[in-house]
């Protein structure tokens, strides 16, 4: 196994330092680059990177946005997404975006290392836990709701989650009452839920809020 260069994308310094310290002990690891936000990611990805270990939630962006940017690059490194979120919509959308592996943060470094080696050997790797979720949701592949919302949709969702009434939301977002209610109904349909409570639960499960 040759030396592999990594880019760690994590906005929590302690977690990033810990992962770097563990990876440096592996014989197959070469240079380790780091990024804590979108700007640093776009700069560092220009280096000779073989693998990206990326936290899904960053202070100024998320993994799906960075994957979309990565697709524009001439060289396509392998990407393993790290997440503390378990929404099946998120996992399926990550698969659609082309990730090569997904690891739950709580599963620890051992699972990260297993996934890295699995991707090296097979091109992609997903643990039995991840595969089970994929199997249970495969029938929804073509109809899976998105986990990326526009800025205005996020503002609407935050206002709803904070418990504001339609009238209060309309005032906050400078909309008419009827327009605010129309946007709320459209947002519920977009994320594939049946009511406001379901929409809020969906948002938290998939890291939108």
Summary, kept brief:
The chain has 209 residues and is an alpha/beta fold.
Spell out the blueprint of helices and strands.
Layout: E1 4-9, H1 13-23, E2 29-35, H2 38-44, E3 51-55, H3 63-70, E4 78-83, H4 88-97, E5 101-104, H5 108-122, E6 125-126, H6 128-137, H7 151-161, H8 166-172, H9 177-190, H10 196-205
Parallel strand pairs: 1-2, 1-3, 3-4, 4-5, 5-6
Helix pairs in contact: 7-9, 8-9
Q: What is the CATH architecture annotation of the largest domain?
A: 3-Layer(aba) Sandwich
| Order of strands across the main sheet | 2-1-3-4-5-6
Biggest sheet, in brief? 6 strands, parallel
Number of helices: 10
**Strand percent estimate:** 5-15%
Oligomer: single chain
The percent range for helix content is: 40-55%
Briefly, what CATH class of the largest domain? Alpha Beta
For the record, give the distance between the C-alpha atoms at the N and C termini, rounded to a whole number. 41 Å
CATH superfamily of the largest domain: Response regulator
What is the molecular shape? Answer: elongated
What count of domains describes the coordinates?
A: 2
**Radius of gyration in whole Å, from Cα?**
19 Å
Task: Describe, in plain words, how this protein is organized in 3D.
- The structure is a single chain.
- This protein is of the alpha/beta class.
- It folds into two domains: about 5-140, 3-Layer(aba) Sandwich (Rossmann fold); about 150-205, Arc Repressor Mutant, subunit A (Orthogonal Bundle).
- The protein has ten helices and six strands, in the order βαβαβαβαβαβααααα.
- It has helices at about 15-25, 40-45, 65-70, 90-95, 110-120, 130-135, 150-160, 165-170, 175-190, 195-205, and strands spanning about 5-10, 30-35, 50-55, 80-85, 100-105, 125.
- Strand 5, helix 5 (about 110-120) and strand 6 form a beta-alpha-beta unit.
- Helix 7 (about 150-160) packs across helix 9 (about 175-190).
């Amino acid at each position: 196994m040759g030396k592999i260069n990594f880019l760690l994308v994590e906005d929590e310094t302690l977690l990033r330092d810990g992962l770097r310290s563990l990876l440096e002990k592996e014989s197959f690891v070469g240079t380790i680059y780091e990024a804590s936000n979108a700007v640093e990611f776009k700069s560092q990805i220009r280096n000779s990177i073989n693998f990206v270990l990326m936290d899904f939630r960053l202070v100024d962006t998320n993994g799906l946005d960075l994957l979309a940017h990565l697709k524009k690059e001439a060289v396509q490194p392998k990407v393993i997404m790290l997440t503390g979120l378990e929404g099946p919509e998120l996992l399926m959308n990550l698969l659609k975006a082309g990730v090569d592996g997904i690891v739950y943060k709580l599963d620890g470094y051992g699972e990260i290392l297993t996934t890295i080696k699995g991707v090296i050997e097979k091109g992609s790797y997903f643990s039995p836990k991840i595969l089970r979720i994929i199997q249970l949701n495969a029938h929804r592949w073509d109809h899976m709701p998105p986990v990326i919302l526009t800025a205005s949709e996020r503002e609407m969702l935050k206002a709803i989650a904070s418990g504001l009434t339609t009238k209060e939301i309309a005032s906050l977002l400078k909309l008419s009452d009827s327009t605010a209610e129309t946007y709320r109904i459209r947002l519920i349909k977009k994320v594939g839920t049946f009511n406001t409570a379901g929409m809020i639960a969906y948002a938290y499960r998939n890291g939108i809020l």
